[in-house]
Amino acid sequence: MRFGRMFGSGRARVLAGGFAVLGCAFATGASAEEGLPKSLSCSFTSGTSWSYEAGDFKSKTPTALSFTIDKIDLDGQSATLNANAEGTGAKLSVVRAINANHFLEAVNEGFLNLTTVYDKDSSNGKYPAVHSRHFGLLGQPVFSQYTGFCTAQ
After folding, report:
1. Residue 73 burial (CB < 10 Å; 0-12/13-18/19+)?
2. pLDDT in tens, 18-74
3. Which of 26, 92, 104, 108 has the fewest CB atoms within 10 Å, i.e. is most exposed?
4. CA–CA dist 69, 99 (Å, integer)
5. Which DSSP category does 37 fall into?
6. Are residues 86 and 71 in contact, defined by beta-carbon separation less than 8 angstroms?
């Protein structure tokens, strides 16, 4: 059955064509930039943190943070997060996307940290990035989201 008959209207045919193009992108294995370096130095200077207190979410500005993502293996979908001088890193899982790579850390307590690194911005040579933390403190939800950049090491 043709898309036109299956979806009926002209607008639906355009939508169906868009899905077909998108499907081809996934079928060809299109993914984030193949030239991602094996190590990134990331710095996050702005963001917001929320905590749940007395029945409501309260926000505040968190302190800046930085870390490196090392041993990046896109094909093996793994990397290491180093947030201290000793270089003892946490294991990261990699989820590849079109124009981005997601680095996911499941910490010992079961909470999640996610860093998304987008393709390099050719105007400044940096990789735009977002870092999110989802955890709890003394039984209360706490989460934060930071924006920043990563650079090749």
Report:
1. exposed
2. 444 444 444 334 444 457 899 999 999 999 999 998 899 999 998 999 999 999 999
3. 108
4. 18
5. -
6. no
What are the residue boundaries of the structural domains of the chain, listed by start? Answer: 1-30, 40-152
At a CB cut-off of 8 Å and minimum separation 6, what does 109 contact? 135
Rounded Cα distance, 108 and 83, in Å:
16
- The DSSP code for 89 is P
Tokens matching residue 46: 């702005």
In the chain, alpha helices (H) = 3-7, 10-27
User: Which residues is 66 bridged to in the sheet?
Assistant: 43
Question: What's the angle, vertex CA 120, arms to CA 128 and CA 89, rounded to 5?
Answer: 65
- Cα 126 from chain centroid (whole Å): 15
